[in-house]
Amino acid sequence: MAIARPAVRARLGDRDALVLALPADHRLADEPSLEVLDVAHDGFVMYADTHSAVNDVVVRSCRAAGFTPRRAHEAPDTSVLLALVSAGLGVALVPESVRSMKLDGVVFRDVTGAETIDLALAFHRDAPAAVHSLIRALEDSGILPPDAVTAGSAPESARLATIVEGPL
Questions:
Q1: How far apart, in whole angstroms, are the C-alpha atoms of residue 60 and residue 155?
Q2: How far is CA 75 from its chain centroid?
Q3: How many helices, marked H, and strands, marked E, lie in the chain?
Q4: Of 71, 84, 69, 73, whose CA–CA distance to 37 is shortest?
Q5: pTM to 2 decimal places
Q6: Parallel, antiparallel, or unpaired: how do β-strands 106-112 and 149-151 relate?
Q7: H-helix or E-strand containing 134?
Q8: What is the pLDDT of residue 5?
Q9: 67 vs 36: CA distance, rounded Å
């Protein structure tokens, strides 16, 4: 997914595997590792944003496993998505970093056969000094590698999830 504006810079941060978020009482909740195909007949909770990079990766992963996910519910953000899963309204494939959002009633399980998603930071090249200070701090902590700058375009993989976006 190319960034159309040359003034926008993207920094690749990390690559996350997808994991399954399941209701705690789901039939597969006690399985330590699953395949994408294991949830082919379940309803999915997905992001409402039609441009969601996560949704794109989820759909591609499901199609590669031989099915199209049935969208049971949509959520405007991750906290609502997990609340819907907790309520038993569907399952979700989410980036592994979402595991840190603990919610009663949701279990996360490793899944084979799913794509990964690149986590990145997109910002305007003329962003305020605070944004550039944040980027330096992320480099210093090892979260952003110093050589991961891509000016004017996103990573070639077209699997970009923006974690912070400055004024465009």
A1: 18
A2: 13
A3: 3, 9
A4: 69
A5: 0.74
A6: unpaired
A7: helix 129-140
A8: 56
A9: 9
CB neighbour class for 30 (10 Å; exposed up to 12, middle 13-18, buried from 19): exposed
Element (H, E) at 131: helix 129-140
| 131: Cα within 13 Å, side-chain hemisphere | 17
E strand or H helix that includes residue 81 = helix 78-86
Give the C-alpha separation, 159 to 62, whole Å.
Answer: 15
User: What's the average model confidence in pLDDT over 121-131?
Assistant: 83
Summarize pLDDT for 34-74 with one digit per residue, the tens. Answer: 999 999 999 999 999 988 889 999 999 999 999 999 999 99
**% the chain with pLDDT above 90:** 53
Structure tokens at 99: 């595991």
